[in-house]
Design a protein that fits this description.
Layout (H helix, E strand, L loop, with lengths): L1 H30 L25 E6 L23 H10 L5 E5 L17 H22 L4 E7 L1 H16 L8 E7 L21 H4 L4 H7 L20 E4 L16 H10 L19 H14 L1
Parallel strand pairs: 1-2, 1-3, 3-4, 4-5
Helix pairs in contact: 2-8, 3-4, 6-7
InterPro entries: AB_hydrolase_fold, Cutinase/axe
Keywords: Disulfide bond, Hydrolase, Serine esterase
Organism: Corynebacterium aquilae DSM 44791
């Protein structure tokens, strides 16, 4: 019995040795190829497929302050029937089927706390909420529909949100690759700088309120609790600079201010009020030659899609 166990143990040891030698030889052969020989080609990862239900384009529109709500319907927004962005999104929805173009309007708490409206959400919190929701929408669409291209646009507070995302995408390919963005259009962007992006209008010389008032944040905070003026965007729009448009009406205090406005508190309150020229982009003929901003935006989107 003892002899039989010894024989079995010997057989096992020999088998292990042979197996080890075979593994060594095969591994060595893979690592040390004969001179001039090339390793067998590895297959490239498959190109992600685009499901049939995916739209060819997705237009994302971000409304301005008081023009949206957190529980609004992103496909059929109802929060504010006078929202500027509706003058752009509705014609597009009438022109294209959802299979061709998905038009998605950002639902967020578009508010701006001030001394006269202390019950409102603060600007920073509102902006962060909107940014998070747009990022989520883009990531979800790109994961499900990797070939869908995006067209991004926003007004006022919504322009700041879309502009900040364009800054991220153009400089880091996040949260989606820059080559998936067909174009960006910002209307009355509070972080606007002349020469950053393309101005289709009259090359307004001023800067956005957040750039103008950045150095006066302690004073601005007295008029607008919870609002931080973040200054210019580092890196501009990066690789998206050649397809990002900045639209600003002359003398609009949101996007056309001198640096360091002396009466910072009064100017900050005017920013929160959203009145005057800032509220007239749908009808003002003096922003872009020959047409209103709404007409230009609709034509711009149609041009990107149809061409």
């Amino acid at each position: 019995m003892k002899k039989a166990l010894t024989v079995i143990a010997a057989i096992i040891v020999v088998a292990l040795i042979i197996g080890g030698i075979a593994h060594y030889v095969s591994t060595r052969d893979d690592q040390q190829l004969p001179p001039g020989a090339e390793p067998a080609p590895t297959e490239a990862p498959p190109t992600p497929e685009q499901p049939d239900w995916c739209p060819t384009y997705e237009v994302i529109a971000a409304p301005g302050t008081w023009e949206s709500a957190a529980d609004d319907d992103p496909i059929n927004p109802q929060a504010n029937p006078n929202s500027f962005m509706l003058t752009v999104t509705r014609p597009l929805q009438e022109r294209y089927t959802p299979d061709e173009v998905k038009v998605w309007t950002l639902p967020y708490t578009a508010q701006f706390k001030s001394r006269q409206a202390m019950d409102q959400m603060g600007y920073d919190e509102s902006r962060d909420e909107g940014t998070s929701r747009v990022r989520g929408e883009m990531i979800t669409t790109h994961e499900q529909c990797p070939k869908t291209e995006f067209i991004l646009t926003g007004f006022s507070q919504g322009a700041v949100i879309i502009g900040d995302l364009a800054n991220d995408i153009g400089n880091s390919d996040q949260p989606i690759p820059a080559d998936r963005v067909k174009g960006v259009a910002l209307v009355a962007d509070g972080r606007r700088e002349p020469g950053v992006g393309i101005d289709p209008g009259y090359n307004v010389p001023g800067v956005g309120a957040e750039v103008s008032l950045e150095a006066l944040n302690p004073v601005v905070g007295l008029a607008l609790p919870g609002a931080t003026m973040r200054g210019p965007r580092v890196g501009g729009f990066g690789s998206l600079s050649d397809r990002t448009f900045e639209i600003c009406a002359p003398n609009d205090h949101i996007c056309d201010l001198p640096i360091g406005v002396p009466n910072a508190i009064d100017r900050a309150q005017a920013i929160a009020d959203n009145t005057g020229i800032h509220a007239q982009y749908a009808t003002n003929p003096d922003v872009i030659p020959g047409q209103t901003t709404s007409q230009w935006l609709v034509g711009w989107v149609e041009g990107l899609i149809d061409n």
